[in-house]
Write a structure and sequence with these properties.
Largest sheet: 5 strands, mixed
Number of helices: 5
CATH superfamily of the largest domain: Outer membrane lipoprotein wza domain like
Number of strands: 10
CATH architecture of the largest domain: Roll
Oligomer: single chain
Radius of gyration: 23 Å
CATH topology of the largest domain: Outer membrane lipoprotein wza fold like
Number of domains: 2
Helix content: 10-25%
Length: about 230
């Protein structure tokens, strides 16, 4: 290939267009053949506190009992004035407000009024690796989708295999792996799942390390990734 042809090819790669969206309702059905069962399009209607989340707890007219930016420990406990360490994980902010008010009432405070705000969803971390512009660990808002995680990493590189996106997710049964296609998600023809805290996203490429190539080839999905053999 001559110099001009090579430059043209590079230009074409660098200017690849976004897939044309399919008009109508986007696909929300998980594909079991790609391990997507358990992944959902539906956002939770309420949020339950998790370890590492950060709260602001305000007790009306009681500044000594109010705290800013207190974090839940790994045990799900949070430390508050007068009350000490109390459980918070698994409750909604409203439920925690009511629990703190009940505890303050039992401790002798008359008619306590409590408000709780979540100042940081620090429990919501996603790792994005592989053929993305800026790999790393990112904090995301509850309800964010897989496409958002890839966007936070500045999108796939020109070498990315956009049809080979692996999502590793912890479950009581162990680590579950599902495969997604970025182009199909962009078109709306494949489920764009809601992220869960701790998800790990790997965008495939011919340039993956020997470790990742071997890992993807050994997935329970029996070769759905079709990773090129290591040379």
């Amino acid at each position: 290939m001559g110099f001009i042809g090579l430059c043209s090819a590079v230009t074409l790669v660098g200017c690849a267009s976004t897939p044309e969206p399919v008009i109508g309702a986007a696909s929300i059905q998980p594909r079991t053949d790609l391990g997507q069962q358990g992944y959902s399009h539906a956002r939770a209607t309420s949020y339950k506190l998790r370890a590492s989340d950060q709260l602001s707890v305000n007790v009306f007219r009681e500044p000594d009992l109010s705290v800013e930016n207190v974090r839940l420990g790994v045990d799900g406990l949070v430390s508050l004035p007068l009350l000490g360490s109390i459980p918070a994980a698994g409750m909604t902010a409203r439920e925690f407000e009511q629990d703190v008010a009940r505890r303050l009432l039992a401790a002798g405070l008359r008619s306590p009024m409590v408000s709780v705000n979540i100042s940081e969803y620090a429990s919501h971390l996603v790792t994005v690796e592989g053929a993305v512009t800026t790999p790393g660990v990112y904090t995301f808002q509850p309800g964010s989708r897989l496409s958002a995680a890839i966007a936070m990493a500045q999108g796939p590189t020109n070498l990315a295999k956009r049809d080979q996106i692996a999502v590793f997710r912890e479950s009581p049964e162990g680590i579950l792996i599902a495969k997604f296609d970025h182009r199909q998600m962009s078109q709306g023809t494949m489920l764009d799942p809601v992220l869960e805290p701790g998800d790990r996203v790997v965008v495939g490429t011919d340039g993956l390390s020997v470790f990742y190539q071997g890992l993807l080839q050994a997935l329970p999905a029996f070769g759905v990734f079709g990773v090129a053999a290591v040379r």
